[in-house]
Amino acid sequence: MASVIHGVLFCVLSALLTLYAFYYHVMDAQLTYLTPLYVILAGFSALLSVIFGYLSLRVLDKRTSPYHTYFTLFSNCLVDFLFAVVKERCRKTFEKDTKKWRETQDNILQQIFHLNAKTEHGLKYQFESLQSKDDFRRKHPLTNYEFYKQSIERVAKGETNILTSHKTIHMILTSGTTSSGCMFPASKKRFSEMLTLASMIDWEISPSQKTVKGQKSADIRLGAKVKFSDCGLSIGSMASFWQNKRGFVQTLMAGRETAPPTVLNILSEPESLYVQCVFALRDRTVSKVRTSFAHTLYNMFGIMETKWEQLTDDISKGRIDPKLDIDSDMRSELNSILYPNPQRAQELAREFRKGFKGIAKRVWPYLSYMSCITTGSMKVYSQKLCEYYAPGVPVISAMYISSEGTLGVNLWPLDQQGYYALLPRTNFYEFIPLENCDQIQPNTLFSEELEIGKEYEIVITNEHGLYRYRLGDVVKFVRYHNDGPVIEFMYRRGQLLNLRGEKTPETAIYQALQDTVADLKDVRLVDYTCTDSLMLDRRRNTSQLISSGITSYQDGAKATSDGEFQYYVIFLELERHGNVEGEVTGDVSIDQLNMQFDENLRKHATFYDMFRSQESIAPPRVYLMKPGSFKELKRYLVENSTATMMQFKMPRLLNKPGALDLLMTLTV
Question: Alpha-carbon distance 660 to 171, whole Å?
Fold first, then answer.
């Protein structure tokens, strides 16, 4: 209410100033050289009257965040307006381009040839002589990261014009949790592509969900240490590039978020999520919750559930828990922003005491949607969000983006399938049929040659230095939007269980686990990962296992004639519904679990079923894990890879001996 009073007073004063300047110095005076100045002053005062009047009316809306200042509220409205303009232009261009998909793709490929013709790579492969996509496909080999590794290392040392003519401003470092870590050069153009995509996404969702100007979003981000190359180039995740930027654009964007940018300097995930929970929970008008991956949102709600008493105490007292392990200067800075809000704390405590099923909509009654990657290995977390913490709240997988390129946008965000329309101007696309993916140089198809329902590996060419690059993502072609492909992400090629050539994907493993756990009473899946007996054999003596008589179903699997155990290994963590305390192992028969999982997997994986029928693959072995095992695994993998907490993706196929050693110590 104080903000409204201040706004009304300012409107009245600026209106009086406008009348004074206009009447006494323009209408009722001789024209002088100062008259234009008075006209400008009157116009400026009138503009201020309109702006502050509008902002005061916005404050009256019960959905407007009470934590706005006049500046942040103005910047919020300004950014919304700019996003609307950009989105409208981008969407029209996108529709036009997808209606002429082939022509647009041909033009983009020629632009790439022209832009990078004088680079070292362009000269080697004679880009200037390439006249068509068929020429390109015939004369340039399919590539992978090893093909570019030495060139990228030279770029990181400061050499230019190697792969692209663009100036490199950041080296994007991949996580290295599902494969080895890789670096890719990024230019201003690459980051502008991502910002444009973000504007399209936000405005595809917001109108249908009736968000209003003045609401803030809880953008959950985890900071990371940024490294620098010898020539001064920053090296880190895509998000880390923006971490230490403090320009005008960053100031405008910060006013839209519940937590201040300084939280990115908290590098420990539990502490960072706790602090961001405090800032998000104190604002009941939050319109959306956004982060990179579904597991980050799931972890945030987990902290909310386990630490709600301390969270409400901090909100009531307007401070950060003194026992929280963060830097003292950081604590002082955060405490200076917070102020006591006992009324909100009491409201939250009432909701928390009712339980945590559906808690999202009860603590944020105006919440429109949550946005994060929900496909692939993230399905296990997104399903738990939808079923437990946020039923009825759309959980949207908004974009298809990777360290290598910006690929697709979800034009149907409220549908739960997670389909992406490929972007026609960011990459030139080719596709390898799934049955040919094991070949080194397989034939590729262009976008117009795809078959609905079939799976392909994506190959991209872009102006940022990747040419006919095998992305490693397997996608299903769903349909065309105009003439442009619409795809569904399925899995990463490396995430396959493959003992006898059966190539069982993680999607089949996940579906079989879902079916298996559904048959268990009052139990739900927390997390899982897989390996095979060959990987386990590297860390133990197979002959000792055979001599000890491990040949029965309950002992794991039978040995083949060559002394090797050929079976799948599943590490599985379960919990009771509602996070009720107590282990579930006493309620679950391991023998029954093994058999049920085997039966379900045979339904979802045809070739696995065939090899099981032939007894070429032995029955699987499921290990039940102690509570918190996958948190320990996450910590280990982040510490022993290039990943940050923000980038981390739980590998569904685990092939790192040290990580397997850890899991074997955590089995029940």
Answer: 31
Which positions of the chain have pLDDT values less than 70? 1-62, 70, 175-181, 198-213, 242-254, 416, 537-565, 577-587, 642-644, 646
Confidence at residue 361, expressed as pLDDT on a 0 to 100 scale? 94
Can you give the pLDDT at residue 13? 57
Q: List CB contacts of 283: < 8 A, sequence separation 6 or more.
A: 65, 66, 67, 216, 218, 258
How far is Cα 336 from Cα 528, in angstroms, rounded to an integer? 42
Taking only Cα atoms into account, the Rg of the chain, rounded to an integer number of angstroms, comes to 28
172 φ, ψ (degrees, to nearest 5): -80, 125
Closest CA to 166 of 153, 182, 155: 155
Q: For residue 443, count other CB atoms closer than 10 A to its CB.
A: 11
DSSP 223: -
* Three-state DSSP state, 474: strand
Name residue, tokens 């604590």: 331
CB 172, CB 186: distance < 8 Å: yes
Question: What pLDDT is recorded for position 48?
Answer: 62
Round to whole Å and give the CA distance between 547 and 562. 14
**What does the mean pLDDT of the chain come to?**
82
- Identify the pLDDT of residue 399: 86
Whole-number Cα distances in Å, 338 to 64, 260, 303, 391: 18, 11, 20, 30
For residue 350, how many other CB atoms are within 10 A of its CB? 11
Phi-psi region of 657 (alpha: psi -120 to 50; beta: other; left: phi over 0): alpha
Main-chain dihedrals φ then ψ at residue 237, nearest 5 degrees: -70, 170
Are 218 and 259 in contact by the 8 Å Cβ rule? The answer is yes
Inter-axis angle of helices 506-518 and 590-604, nearest 10:
130
Which one, of 276, 302, 305, lies nearest residue 217 by Cα? 276
* Total-model pTM: 0.79
Residues 6 or more apart whose CB falls under 8 angstroms from that of 83 comprise: 199, 202, 203
At 534-575, the pLDDT tens digits run 877 665 543 344 344 433 333 334 444 344 558 999 999 998
pLDDT score, position 554:
33
Evaluated on CA atoms 341, 343, 348, 353, the torsion sign reads positive
